[in-house]
Amino acid sequence: MFPSRRGQSGFTYMGIIFLVALMGLLLASVGTIWSAARKSEQERELLFVGNQFRHAIELYYERTPGPIKEYPKSLEALLQDARYANVQRFLRRIYVDPVTGKAEWGLVPGPGGGVIGVYSLSDKEPRKKANFSEANQALEGKTRYSDWKFIYIPRAANSNGMPATPSQR
């Protein structure tokens, strides 16, 4: 006669369990890939923002009125530089640190006061440790985001009166 349905229901149940387990594995791998992609995007954003701060500090320093150059006393000075009759703006806003999600930055103090650079306050380990652009060569091999310091150091003239190369600084 006809086979019993009892044997078939066990087979269907095992098939559903297998499918649920397979879906769980797929979702776990997608989560891992998404997490790695997110971290890479945060690093790209941190590099962009850090370089924006470095460039703003450079503009502030190089455009100092008078012969004695000075660094900004705070990051807020980059938003509105009142040293001129017309207010100068070197940044539109204080960027949020993409790694911590906060608008707080570590500040690198300069000689005689002022801020020569910024860094993330995150102690997380970066994925990127090599192959940085020339402007970010100092970040090679750093093991924490807080070691990624975006500093502006003016080019000192060498004995020929020419700007110093990175190896001469």
Defining traits:
single chain, 169 residues, mainly alpha, 3 strands, elongated, disordered C terminus
Helix and strand arrangement:
Blueprint: H1 6-62, E1 106-109, E2 115-119, E3 149-151
Question: Explain this structure to me?
Answer:
The protein starts with 5 loop residues before the first helix and ends in an 18-residue tail after the last strand. The protein is built from one helix and three strands; from the N terminus they run H-E-E-E. The protein is elongated and about 90 Å long. The chain has 169 residues and is mainly alpha-helical. The chain has one helix at residues 6-62; strands at 106-109, 115-119, 149-151.
Care to give the gist of this entry?
The protein is mainly alpha-helical. It is 34% helix and 7% strand.
Q: In percent, how helical is the residue content?
A: 25-40%
* Cα separation of the termini: 93 Å
Largest sheet, order of strands side by side? 1-2-3
Broad shape: elongated
Order of helices and strands: HEEE
What is the structural class?
A: mainly alpha
Task: Kindly state the number of beta strands.
Answer: 3
Radius of gyration: 27 Å
Low-confidence segments, ≥5 residues, pLDDT <50?
A: 157-169
Biggest sheet, in brief?
Answer: 3 strands, antiparallel
Percent of residues in beta strands? Answer: 5-15%
The pLDDT mean sits at: 86
Count every helix, treating DSSP H or I runs of 4 or more residues as helices.
Answer: 1
